[in-house]
Structure formats: structure tokens, C-alpha cells
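We emphasize that the prediction below concerns an isolated chain of 362 residues; any contacts that depend on oligomerization or on bound cofactors are therefore not represented. The input was used exactly as deposited, without trimming of termini.
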Amino acid sequence: MKPAQLLFEDGTSFLGTVFSEGKPCVSEVVFNTAMSGYQEVITDPSYAGQMVLMTYPLIGSYGINKDDIESRGLFLDALLVKEYIDFPSNFRSEKSLKTYLQENNVWGIEGLDTRAITRYIREKGAQKALLTTDLSNMETLLKQLQEAPGMVGKNLADTVTCEAPYVWQTLEKPLFKVAVIDCGVKYNILRWLSQRGCECHVFPSYVKPESLLDAQFNGIFVSNGPGDPEVVTQTIETMKVVLGKKPLFGICLGHQLMGLALGGKTYKLPFGHHGANHPVKNLLTGHVEITSQNHGFCIDMNSLNANEVEVTHLNLNDNTVEGIRHVGLKAFSVQYHPEAGPGPHDSLYLFDDFIALMKQHS
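Result of the prediction step, given as a C-alpha cell string:
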């Protein structure tokens, strides 16, 4: 197999071998601690512009199937693993992970010391890396890497969003009609809303507020997505207009955009939260939820108006904001992924909270 190197900005490099070849890339490297669910991870649009390193050592063992896909395609730049398994054993498997990555022109690299890379990122913080099969000419490669733009300032939501509005699943007698702002929405979010009787009308991230204030919509949902939240300006402006006029619920990037629309600020985390086992405390109930997470930015709790915005959830690993709600407006959001895919279902009650808000409003 062809050798490959993962080269970081400070000159540190890690060697592996190619099992799926993709397009040349300079991307941010993040590690994901989930022990299963690699298919849902690689089809999550929130990973656009990133290389994903799986800390679990064996990846590929149960293949790929059509039911666990979380978006219309693959948006990550590379999948980095310790050991790739090319002989999947699962009755649901329809193709190998290698075949799926090759079909989508995405790098797959194995043989990497994933523990060492994870420790390196934890110590140095998330940073750009260049993935290449060129093992020489280090000076030129480093210059190319250092001149490439980083994650801060990138509006990636507008690159992964849908091209035109659509209805996720037409319901014969919907209980509610929900306008979904697609910043990189995961299908499992739409599935859970549909199961609760919500007909989801999905709009691009740059939708204007007039389209969402149509009388037919009972509520507005703002999805997860990739990149720097501060530059997703059209979505922020739209949220400012609709706040207070319709019940509003945001997840992940939608949560960060909620904070910005309410006058707060965001900042980049040292290496982000990516995995399916993050403890979050619900400050309203005192309960601790084990959550699925995938984000690199966070709301600055000191930037929020404490008289108007209440922090509802905290991350017990680093005390960062995981949930907020507006005291007077029917608006709330969480940083983590209650829909899971992959991950635990501890937080599914949040979809019921959204339903309750729409019932109150109607």
C-alpha cells in the first residue's frame, strides 16, 4: 500500500498507509472518541473541512448500510484510523467502508499511531495538517501548510446546506409544521421530529426571515453544521428577526448561532468536543446526561445578558456552556446532539420540550 504522512504546522509528522485515496487537502485534524458509529460520523456535515481521527483502534468491521447515513454525502476530508478492517461482518452491511470512501473521493489512512496523535492534539490544540503521499520536500510542504487558511473565519455552513427548500417527509395529518434551517442538518434530527408528528420543511442556511414567518409554521429549528459560527451572518440575522415570533430550537451550530443572535460571543475550543460519551449536567433538573458531541466552537457565558438568557446545561468535563434558553422568548438551544446517531438517547426529551413550546404558542 502507498505510504502517507500527516504533517502538522510545527513540523511534527505521523506516517501511515493509504487504503482510500482522496483529493489533496490541508485541514484541521480532530479526534472522535466514539467506539462505534463511524458511518454516522463520516456522513455528519459538521465535519466539513476536517480530518477525523478515530481513537477506537479497529474501524470498518461492520461495513456500510443505507439506513445509517446522516446526510446526502461525505463532507470530511479524510478518515484517520489505527487499523482498517476490509472484511465487514454484519447482516446489514451492503459495502465496505473502503468502497464507500473511494466512491466519495475521501482519504482513508490506516497504520497511524492514533494514541500519539490524540495526545499531540490534546497538548498542542486542534491545528491544520497536510495529508500527502509525498514523503520528501519537507520545506515546500510546510510552507504550503502554513499559508493555508485555518478554521476560524470559514463559513462552511453555506457550503453544505441544501440548494433549494424541500419537505423531508410529507405527513397526511401533521401535528405541527416546522421550518428547518439547514446548516448541515443530520437526518436523525429530521427523523425524530417526524416521529413526533412534525412535517419538516427544510430551507438553505441563507434563507430570509420572511420565508420562515409564514403562518403555516408552528416552530423554527436551526440545525448543526460546520465551521466558525460568527461568519454565518445571514442565519444570525434571520434568527434575530424570528426570535419571539415563533418557538425556536437550535442544536450544535444552531446553538452557537442562537447565542450570537441573542447578543453573545463565541470562541474556539482548544481541541473541541467530538464523541459519544460527554457528561452534561441539566441545571434545571440536576440530572446528568451522557451526550453525543461534535463541535469546535463554544458560547462565552460571560457575554450573555444574565437577565434575559439562562444557562441550562453545563459540560462536566470543562464547564463550558452546553445549553441556554431565553427567559421571555420561546427559544432554547443545546450544544450537543440529542438525536444521537451515534450515541446515547439520554437527551431525546429536548424534542418533546420543543413540541411543548409549539403547543403553548399555538
